[in-house]
Amino acid sequence: MESQTTDAIMTSPNALAQLGAMAIHYGLSLAGAIVLLVGGWILSGFVSRWAYSGLSRIHGIDETLARFFEKVLHYGLLILVFVMVLGQFGVQTASIVAALGAAGLAIGLALQGTLQNIAAGIMLLVLRPFRVGEYIETSSVKGKIVDVGLFATELRTGDGLYLMAPNSTLWNTPIINHSREPERRQELSVAIGNDTDVSVVKETILAIVASDKRVKTDPPPRVVSDDLTADKTALKIEYWASTGEWTETRYDMIDKLKIGLAQKGIAIK
């Protein structure tokens, strides 16, 4: 019994020394981890804000895209800081990185359609085939752009309905932008009998078209014979108007042509 008591007394200082060494070691690791966490959080915020500020100054970079890259950079740096913190406690970070890579691959495969929409959204925001407020038309959708997001684009149809289109459907199809160009050509058609003097009708139509101040003088409007049958001649009327007034100009021009030709006694077939 006396020898056991002596051995316990002899080993106690060694145990206390080991506990003290472990406390110092893990205390330093904990302090280093806290420093890394705080410093990494501050640094990631600073770097991401700096990147956002730099992207915002680049012409053609959309606000949504700049915010997206800011968040990706911010959380990417935080993940790197987290891995470094685990390394402070002796954790094998190589296996963690491999696990994160495998998890990222699995998530990417599971969200393949979503990632495709994100990639398409990034391309739409970079290349800007359309902007908010413009009217577009594709083989499947048409409407006025309300918002361009990373996953989908919101539109308002001509009859006031809300439409959301996945970005992949807009990126993989030809797009007609009705609003991008400042001026747009209009074409109308009028058919007259073959017994009517074509030159007189052309002069009358040109005078009616030119009287509208919304019609551009350069290039000037023109009237050409477009088709001929046994009993009538089809005349094609071409003129240019500003894109914003194009639709209303068309509606008004049809009324003006009908009234103006009737006043000259010209019958329309």
TrEMBL record:
Keywords: Cell inner membrane, Cell membrane, Ion channel, Ion transport, Membrane, Transmembrane, Transmembrane helix, Transport
Entry-linked InterPro entries: LSM_dom_sf, MS_channel_1st, MS_channel_C, MSC_TM_helix, MscS_archaea/bacteria_type, MscS_beta-dom_sf, MscS_channel_2nd, MscS_channel_C_sf
Gene3D superfamilies xrefs: 1.10.287.1260, 2.30.30.60, 3.30.70.100
Membrane-protein topology: Multi-pass membrane protein
Keyword Magnesium: no
Domain Mechanosensitive ion channel MscS C-terminal: 188-268
GO CC terms, sorted: plasma membrane
Domain called Mechanosensitive ion channel transmembrane helices 2/3: residue spans: 71-112
UniProt superkingdom: Bacteria
Protein function: Mechanosensitive channel that participates in the regulation of osmotic pressure changes within the cell, opening in response to stretch forces in the membrane lipid bilayer, without the need for other proteins. Contributes to normal resistance to hypoosmotic shock. Forms an ion channel of 1.0 nanosiemens conductance with a slight preference for anions.
Family from the record: Belongs to the MscS (TC 1.A.23) family.
Annotated PANTHER family: SMALL-CONDUCTANCE MECHANOSENSITIVE CHANNEL (PTHR30221:SF1)
Assembly: Homoheptamer.
Annotated protein name in UniProt: Small-conductance mechanosensitive channel
